[in-house]
Amino acid sequence: MAWLGGFGRLCAVFLAIFSFSFQGASSQLVVSPVGPTLVNALAGSNVTLAVSFTGADDPTVTWLMGDLPVVTWTIGSDVPPDIDEDRKKVLNIEPKGSLTFVNVPLGYTSNYTFEMTKSGLAKSVTSFTLEVFERIQSVILTQPEFAIEGRKLFTLQYGMLQGVVQQQMWLFNDIEINSNSQYTVEERSLVIHGPNRRDTGRYTVFLKNPFSSVTTHINVTVLYGPEKPILEALPAQPFYLSGDTLSVSCKAEGFPLPTAKWDFGSQIPDQLNGVLNLTNVQTNQAGTYTCTLVSEQSIEKLQMNIILKVYERPSGNPMCSVQSVNNVNLQYYCMWPGGTPQAVLSFPTLSNTSSGVETFSLTFNASDNLNGKTVTCIADHPVEQNQCSMTASSPMKFLPSVMTRVSSDGKIVVTIECVSKASPEAVVSWSQGSETVAAGTTYQISSNATQLQIRDYNVSNFILQNYTCSCSNPLGSQRREVHLQGPSISDFSLFRNLNGTIVTLTWEVPPTSVVTGFDIQMKGPYLPNKSRGGTQKRGSADVFQTIQQKPGSVRSVDIFSLDPSLTYRFRVIPKALMTEGEPSEVQRIGPGEGLSRAAIAGIAAGIPCSLLFIVLLGIAIYFCFHSDKNKSRQRRYPVSRAVEKAITTQTEMTPHILLTGGLKSPPDYNRLNLTPSERSMALPTFVPPAPVRVATTV
């Protein structure tokens, strides 16, 4: 048995020598990968790059990560492999030389080379590619900047929480994008050159690796505009009137929709969404309005202007007048002030070549052909064409008016006014006798010279004075004389109510009478008056007593509390301060009175005369009757048929007026030569009845 053990050992040595001799005879190391040389690994997993070899025992092997040796070892050696310190936790070499990665991280993606060497033999090499992947997660596609039409380019990029992309594909509206003149596909991005609004749409990126795939989208809008804006004023009109309401809009194409902002000079008017709402627009709001369009995202700007015209009609109507130049020439004047723009004025009948704005005048020598000639001023304004007319005329005949009052210092003030209708306005001058009246203490002349005031304490200084006023203009003149007279009454009337308890006294004064007040006098029973004890007293007076005093401007007075069963008499005494004029006639109211002595004497004398007249009338009738009877007894001859004759007579009819209580009818005010300014109330007009035609057949 011992020899058998020794024999076995000898055989083993022999076999080893034989094997060595055979290998040495081949002289070649052969290394080959076990499995694919491209290895995909999921990060965190274990993966082995497996190799096999032949041609030598215990060769030395080296693994290179790229060009960097990371593991060196002699197969079969008891010496531990030499592994890079930074990679000992990951790399591990197998007994047959294969390289194992434990929990392989992403950073180990690389090309790995396996080198095997043996002294006396050629080196043998094989290579692997290891790609370490993560599952693709949370991919986000972003647009770092706005895509603006007209810009050079814009870029889409994607990012992800983790993952290694092995393959990416871009699509636009589900159509694959390839790199060309418009698109460039880069790592993790897509570049779009010269973007325009047609590039607006959905962009998709498809990412894939051996362990996962993800698809994500983004909607891209290419911003454009603002385009050329459209400015519009509504209602559309060539111009607007002051007080109108209008709106002005500013619109333009673009995405996003541009924001419109209005400016008016240095002002920023109220606006809403690019629309100006102008209510009650005024002329100071006319001018150039600027609309600025801004794209809030692209910050692109565009401006455009619109001009608004706001016109205002000149106030009122054109005013025409004829003015005197040195009382020799006539100046035709037309004015229509205000308005926007100013009105253009002209006198076509006087000149076809001259015109002016707002105010315009032409001057001519006064001549008879201009007297009474109507000249029209044409006022032309964009809002309205208007006109006015004027007629130059010489002064007309006039009637001076006289007014009297008492000044605060107790003087009588007599005002004489002379106004003659003329165009141009007449120039008034005053004279007393042959001397010109000059303003001073006694005389005062109004600013327009139409009034002359005479001031004095004594009314006698006014009476019998003659004053002359002359009115003249370039076309002629008129003059009138005024003769002042003392206080007097020209007409006095009495009217009563139906019950006879109230009467109204009215009176007038001559046009040139100087009157400062009136005493209202009554004769008859005293008017009822409450005594201190509350009882009423009643009496009578046979003389006129003053019951009221009125100023010189009053022309009527009411008397109350009259007894219809009693008789009253009234009169008015005009006064100039303390100077009294002639009383007015007496007016009576009340029941009829008994006959006076004169009336009784008249009746006594009239009775015998009446009896004698009746006797003579009877005798005459008797003789006429007998004479006619004698004629009827004479022989009669046939005669032709009698011809009827009609005699038409014009009768004068007088109005039949019933007077009650001895009152007379109101006076005929048409016969009074009074001016309206001298009466305190409108007076009734007496109109006689129409003539009556009477026919009598004989």
Automatic annotation (TrEMBL):
List all membrane-crossing ranges.
Answer: 598-625
Where does the source fall among the domains of life?
Eukaryota
Task: Read off the SMART domains from this record.
Answer: IG (SM00409), IGc2 (SM00408)
Signal peptide start and end residues:
1-27
Fibronectin type-III domain span: 488-594
CDD domains, from UniProt? FN3
Please indicate if the UniProt record lists ATP-binding as a keyword: no
Q: Which InterPro entries match?
A: CEA_cell_adhesion, FN3_dom, FN3_sf, Ig-like_dom, Ig-like_dom_sf, Ig-like_fold, Ig_I-set, Ig_sub
Coiled-coil intervals: none
Q: Where is the Ig-like domain?
A: 229-307, 400-485
Write down the Pfam families for this protein, in alphabetical order: I-set, Ig_3
Keywords, in A-Z order = Glycoprotein, Immunoglobulin domain, Membrane, Repeat, Signal, Transmembrane, Transmembrane helix
Protein name listed in UniProt: V-set and immunoglobulin domain-containing protein 10-like
Species of origin: Pogonophryne albipinna
Biological classification of the source: Eukaryota, Metazoa, Chordata, Craniata, Vertebrata
